[in-house]
Amino acid sequence: MRDGSKAKKENVRRQRLLAAQANPTATEEGERNALVIGLGPGLCSVELDGMLRHVRCQIPVVPGDEVCVMNDAVSGISPRRTVLIRTDPLNARREKVVAANVENMVIVAAITNPPLRTGLIDRYMIAAARGGIKPILCINKLDISSDTSEVAGYDLPMVKCSTKTGEGIQELRDMLAGSLAVLTGHSGVGKSSILNALTDSEDARVGALSVETGKGQHTTTASRLYHLSNGARIIDTPGIREFGLGPVTLDELKAAFPEFTSERCRFQDCTHKLEPDCAIRDAGGPRYEAWLRLLEL
Questions:
Q1: What CATH fold (topology level) applies to the domain 23-77?
Q2: Which of 18, 115, 158, 183 is 20 to 30 Å apart from 124, CA to CA?
Q3: Which residues contact 51 (CB under 8 A, 6 or more apart)?
């Protein structure tokens, strides 16, 4: 677990880097504000004046970024209000921003096909807390398995869905109305199918689950942003099998376990591991075991 003061310094450093690139308003002649939709080599897709445009881009941007465009090129980026960050799979010491300015993170999971991975859900919740994003747990494929007892201990908004029967789709659509959200989850959990159901389109290509391994094919290869008729906008991210966090602070861990309230402990900064008379440690259970695993990061 990383030291809280170091985490604060990292956040300050990140904000300074963003501020150095910032150009929050279109002030120069011919400069216009745009929203980044998708990425490409040396280019990015932006929503500009209600239309999709492909412009040159030499500044590191991600879907959800608010940028300025001038002469068919990105000339500046506004400070990010929220961020979804993971460690780079190729370099654990380097952070990679996945999406920006999102209000909600929809964590899509399935009970079976592929099997439920609560550890990945926990990691997403920490990333949401770290980036200032509200997490929503979406349990998909209820038509295959409706036993959701394994996630009963989570204290966060939850919706149970099936794209085959349509159950829960309207509820999820209503939860996201008017907001910018990011769709995350393990490969094969049906993120693209949920996106298709939410948008009533086939724009999000659906990938089959690998029969040989039971692991989902990586259908989405780059983050993209989609619009819903109720004003919601959704950033779809590539399906993953691992989500690196780097060191985690105690405050970040607490934010991902809201059910572990301080009222249940004698100590304000209880780690629920060695302190005496800790009600959370004495109660045990799957969520407590998950806490201990993450405490070692």
A1: OB fold (Dihydrolipoamide Acetyltransferase, E2P) (2.40.50)
A2: 18
A3: none
